[in-house]
Structure formats: C-alpha cells, structure tokens
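To make the argument concrete, we let one protein speak, a sequence paired with a row of structure tokens, as a model reads it:
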Amino acid sequence: MTNNFIVTLKKNTPDVETKKFLDSVHRVGGSIEHEFDIIKGYTIKLPDVLKLNKLKEQHSDVIQNVEEDKEVHTN
C-alpha cells in the first residue's frame, strides 16, 4: 500500500541538501508527486510508512514538517 505525504523543508535549506532529500525519496522506492511553488515542499508517494521514518531520520536537520496527504472535508 502506498502512502502520500506532504513534506515541508526548512526555508533556508540549501539546494544541495534539498537534492539529497529528493534523491533519498527515490532510493527508498518513492516518487515526487508534486513540488510546491510558494514553499519548499513536496508531495511524495512512498511504498511503506517505514520508509518515511527512514527519511525523517536521515534528513531531520532539513525537514520542518511531515503530514499525511489526505482528503479534507468541511461541514
């Protein structure tokens, strides 16, 4: 089962660190589904939640926030 997550990197993350993060997503079998323009953020698809934990450990110094990408409903 694949899972989608929105990952926001810290605003001051150097391009070289951003590239390392994106390369890591591909290395764990994930993909970049969307890149945001206004913020340094990405929607990523991962084959397994455990892969997310690995990414968070490897890139904890540049990741600002991670949340599951899911539908939001209003009443």
